[in-house]
Design a protein that fits this description.
The protein is of the alpha/beta class and 350 residues long. The protein is 39% helix and 14% strand. The chain has one domain: TIM Barrel. It has helices at residues 24-33, 51-56, 58-69, 81-85, 94-98, 109-130, 157-178, 196-205, 218-222, 228-235, 281-290, 308-322, 341-347; strands at 5-10, 38-42, 74-80, 134-137, 182-186, 212-216, 239-244, 246-249, 269-272, 296-299. The strands form two sheets. An eight-stranded parallel barrel has the order 1-2-3-4-5-6-7-10, surrounded by five helices. A two-stranded antiparallel ribbon has the order 8-9. The two termini are 38 Å apart.
Length: 350
């Protein structure tokens, strides 16, 4: 019987140069002590996890798994959110995005894209060496400056943008397909894949590639005014990863979805720690269970008010309480009679 696994935690917001957050062993003990069962692993911190070594060495991967196993942990997915972002960067964001790239490719958008593409391909091999089946990432964006249709977009701009995005991602998707691993795009404002419609356009551009899938994060949907529960009904076949993140959207007379350039604390739409926002997680876990999702429920802590330690401590029991062990029998089985063809015919008047 399929069941959502958890709780897991995304480490990106916790890695630092301060113990215990500066070593894999320190992070593992910290997460385990809080009740987590798996780590979603960023791949830009070689002192924590060396992506290049993991892609080349099965021995290294076994050592990583052994370190985590000491604390009752495993890896849920590897993450290349930053590298995925750099697969496609609009020139307006070159300076901002260069800070995430190695100095050797900064200022050279073509070299930066090649570097990011290679990183994703390394992540496919590393995931295979670790025995993983899903991978978390961003799509990057060529069209985000034109998300609002004013000035009017020239005809063909969006279609050409998705054509170029597909051209960049198809070799990556094919590499993941060699190893049977799903690429799970976190649908996120700032990325060209930010909602269901944009994801569908991308799917069409990559010929419905079987490895093009979704990392479901309801917080980004709530802040766009989307039906995040209906999204599961519509796209559940493509949901292969899950971020458990809360949010609230409280529009006012002065502010709505766009936030008025305000900082996170003062925005109408804000990310919150689990249980402090408006997301209906009971229904989310119910729907994902109904559709047979058996991946990890991964806490991504992002909150403009609550301290990360408190958010992480509260996150594990919150997820655990929402996990559903799917029933193997109907609640009214006690009243069911045995199948009798003659009785059924009589009841139907046959």
């Amino acid at each position: 019987m399929t069941q959502i696994k958890g709780p897991a935690i995304f480490l990106a917001q916790f890695i630092s140069d301060v113990a215990p957050f500066n070593t894999l062993e320190g992070l593992s003990k910290w997460a385990s002590d809080k009740g987590y069962k798996a780590l979603q692993m960023p791949t830009l911190n070689p002192e924590i996890f060396d992506l290049h070594l993991a892609a080349e060495s099965q021995t290294y991967c076994e050592e990583i798994k052994a370190t985590l196993a000491q604390y009752g942990l495993e890896i849920s997915e590897l993450s290349t959110h930053i590298q995925g972002q750099l697969v496609a960067v609009h020139p307006a964001y070159n300076l901002l995005m260069d800070q995430f790239a190695p100095e050797t490719v900064q200022g050279d958008s073509k070299a930066r894209t090649e570097w990011a593409t290679n990183e994703l391909k390394l992540a496919a091999r590393a995931s295979a060496n670790l025995g993983l089946t899903a991978h978390a990432t961003f799509s990057g964006s060529l069209m985000w400056p034109y998300v609002y249709p004013w000035p009017q977009r020239p005809q063909g701009l969006v279609e050409q943008g998705f054509e170029e995005l597909a051209k960049r991602w198809l070799p990556i998707l094919d590499e993941f397909d060699k190893f049977g691993i799903d690429v799970c795009y976190e649908l996120h404002p700032g990325e060209d894949l930010f909602d269901g419609t944009s994801f569908e356009q991308f799917l069409n551009s990559v010929n419905n590639h079987p490895r093009a899938n979704v990392l479901y994060d309801p917080s980004h949907m709530l802040l766009q005014g989307m039906d995040y529960l209906g999204f599961i009904d519509r796209y559940h076949n493509r949901i292969k990863a899950f971020h458990v993140k809360d949010a609230e959207f409280r529009p006012s007379a002065s502010q709505g979805v766009y936030g008025g350039y305000a900082g996170w604390t003062d925005r109408a739409g804000r990310f919150r720690s689990l249980g402090d926002g408006q997301i209906d997680f009971i229904q989310i876990f119910s729907k994902l269970t109904q559709y047979g999702f058996d991946g990890w429920a991964v806490l991504e802590w992002e909150c403009c008010l609550k301290d990360s330690e408190q958010g992480a401590a509260e996150g594990a029991p919150f997820i655990s309480q929402n996990l559903i062990k799917r029933t193997e029998k109907a609640f009214d089985d006690f009243a069911a009679g045995s199948q009798q063809d003659d009785l059924n015919k009589n009841l139907l008047g046959l």
